[in-house]
Amino acid sequence: MKPDFLSPEFHNDPFPVLEWFRSNKPVYRHEETAVPCVSVFKYADVRYVCRNDNDFSFQGIANHDKPLVGGETLFRNPSVHTRMRELFDPLFNRKRIHWLDKVVREKSIELLNNMEHGRSVNIVSDIADPLASFAMCKFLGLDHNDSKKALHWAREVVQNEGYLYFRNSGYSDREERLDRVFKEVREYIIDMIDSASHTGENSALQYINNLHESNPRVVTREIFIDIVAILSFAGVDTISTVIGNLLRALLENPGQFQRLAVDKNLLGPAIEETLRYYGCVKCMVRVATRNTALGHEEINAGDTVLVWMLSANRDGDIFENPDRFDISRGATQHFGFGTGIHQCIGAMLARLVIKSFMTGLLENGYTMQPAGDDWLTPAQTPLAYGSSEIHVTLAHR
Ligand code: HEM
Known about the structure:
The protein is of the alpha+beta class.
């Protein structure tokens, strides 16, 4: 099999292809990419690469040789990275972020109430996108009037970055678009810092600003800008996509939707099962730092290594009946948030926002049905697995 990982067919339904690779070619050297590139598909190999930072690094990735978001802080060698995580992990402490629960729930109900009941609505553009960008602006302390900008930037990154890893035709255009976004975001953040226009006592910006002011040699201005930029990109599209994926999975499995409506204790497990079954990250990237091997494949220093989280999460060696969506499965060892030192810093925040939204939906007795035969439009992006449109009719129970 010689699949086109950038084709609409693959974006629309990647699972049969991923299964074929897990069974037949678990470590695969790409022929179509302009840079040497290897993909790993099995759970054990994904885990091995992600947890072996000395051999498979975040530093040196495709476009990471120039200033980019994350380049000063988290996309560094393990020792710098660990110091940065120690500084910024406390931002996501449950006690620091619990206030968002009420705010997100109220916003969810407002958005749902504004929907025209009994008519077809697109829950991606009408609910998931505005909610995720609103929640991230609140968390960071950005003016929520800027949430459309935040969404636009996050989407530009998700839609373009993956093409750089494959570096095939048309990639320079993608690179230009990314450069433009990084520049815009940088200018926006510098302007905000200089004019002290960020808001919110509990906001992430306030926390990072305090770190910067109390210890400017450790949290330099560049680090300040960089961490705000990476946090403002990383949460918006991912949270929106997982809300869409969860609703999609429930709509495709109405029996499970019913179970959830009567037993809210299943909400946490349902979110975990979504991150496994329809995880929003298809694959992530590392660069080999030395000559080594994966399975039967020789790996050379400098090779790009794509780790397929979406595939690992369907690995039958780890998960029983992996292609079944089961909200009571209780499988927490999925890689929806990655694994190893780069495991998602915002996982707790993401879970909180998704749970607050779903609680608002379920407690207010909302139900939904797919609207028509073409209710679902898969997103066409190399790195993210989600839907660009999900049309439903909304009603009250
Ligand atoms: C459901 C939503 C989310 C999903 C599915 C998700 C997924 C992931 C995954 C798979 C990784 C690992 C990347 C790798 O190993 O290469 C990651 C890392 C990261 N995520 Fe998330 N993420 C989500 C939400 C968030 C939020 C809300 C934030 C911040 C506000 C965030 C910030 C980050 C950052 C900064 C990293 C890099 C961490 C490091 O290098 O130490 N993510 N995320």
